[in-house]
Amino acid sequence: MQVPFLSTHIYHAEAVRATMNNSTPEMLAALEDELILAFEDEVSELEKAADNDGWFRYPADAGLRIVSRSASRAMFGIGLCRNEAFNKLTIEFSLGFAKAGFAGMLLPNSVRNVLRPLLSRRPRESAKRITEIMRPELEKRMRRLESNLKAREEGRSGDIVPLPADTLSCLIEETHKHGPDHFTVENIAGCCRIYSFVAIHSTNLCIFHSLLNLASLTYQQDDGQRASYVPSLRDELSEIYASEVLPTATSEARHIDHQNAPKLHPFSKGWTGAALDGLRGLDSFVRENLRMKMQGPTSLHRTVAADGGITLKSGLHLPKGTFIAVPARSIQIHESNDPDAAEFNGWRTGRPGQADKGDAATTTSSTYFPFGTGKHACPGRFFAVKEIKLVLKHILLNYEIKEIEPRPKDPNLFVYQIPPTRGVSPILLRRRKVQ
Ligand code: HEM
């Protein structure tokens, strides 16, 4: 299950940075298409259990499948993302991997090394099966890369067939540069598993928190009355769609429609990067969810690697091997940042229709750590925030969200605030009537 070069080489992060910092229009269109298809696939099942008024529960595991399938589409291509076994194993692997990690942390040192192989048995099996499913696609692309490089060397540019423009191709190219030990199916599939692990849970949890907050939190209007965020966010979607979204077909899948799908809101499709960036209110709302709900007590976990250790400006010396972290949650909610920093304020960094920009959800700083900060800040954050906005956009346009009073508490998982994803979901959706 190990990915041997993960701690010594950072091409896995480079490939994400190269393809996801500025997703191409094609990548974004593929992500949006797959999200809509996956969402409607899930809802067609969930609606079977709707009550007489049409409300159905939206469980976190449905969200996980939607996020996993659509992220796989953008990162690995249409073949793998539509492979049910691949999707199932990917989710199984990342859940098992996380559980094994947490369980391992709880064990005393004396038995940890003995029990670790047992704890990781299931995820190791899933990992092997994922590699076998990926193998034909990986070998095809690896062979194509080699023959393209040969053709370039021999001046046969007409024989070059470009690889699909996604994260997987970029990763294959990066591993090739590092030599035959790295350019293997096992290593490349291992990096892809890591992507799935880091990409799907956090994104889904953030969406789940956002839905709970949309259902239960309000803001104070200028007249002093409290109001739901939902109508303002819907108005913003309509305004931006009218001014920013071009009705162009940018991906072949744009023409695939879900065969059983009821009519969707006319503004559901075609959202460009610029249009998503223009959603100032939604961006601020997502940022506030990340700030208040997606931050563990600490961030920037690092181990001092320099042989002689490091000495901080304060004179404190940290020997090699010292484990350090920043008390991120306390910093984020400290009043020196904002007098009401400990409260949820969905319009903290922007409001619908507001032109001047506060910090974006993706802007890291020394007071905002959900994606870390500095050299190792999450390279997938631009993609993650786009994906979160695309899901919320689809739900806001096409579904009503039932109010919840009060907001259910987040059970603590160790020191993390995980939304109530187990048991009966508190989130109820109902299809909106679309003209
Ligand atoms: C809401 C969703 C996400 C959250 C909250 C999140 C958060 C984080 C955090 C806190 C780090 C560590 C940063 C540090 O130590 O300074 C990280 C690293 C990383 N994330 Fe994300 N992430 C998310 C989504 C994604 C996605 C969609 C991808 C895409 C594959 C991704 C890929 C990575 C990678 C490759 C690293 C390691 C970077 C390195 O070591 O240089 N993440 N993420």
UniProtKB/TrEMBL annotation:
It holds the Pfam family p450. Its cofactor is heme. It comes from the Eukaryota. InterPro entries: Cyt_P450 (IPR001128), Cyt_P450_CS (IPR017972), Cyt_P450_E_grp-IV (IPR002403), Cyt_P450_sf (IPR036396). PROSITE patterns: CYTOCHROME_P450 (PS00086). The keyword Iron applies. The keyword Heme applies. GO terms for molecular function: heme binding; iron ion binding; monooxygenase activity; oxidoreductase activity, acting on paired donors, with incorporation or reduction of molecular oxygen. Heme binds at residue 378. SUPFAM superfamilies: Cytochrome P450. Keywords: Heme, Iron, Metal-binding, Monooxygenase, Oxidoreductase. Belongs to the cytochrome P450 family. This is Cytochrome P450. It comes from Ascobolus immersus RN42.
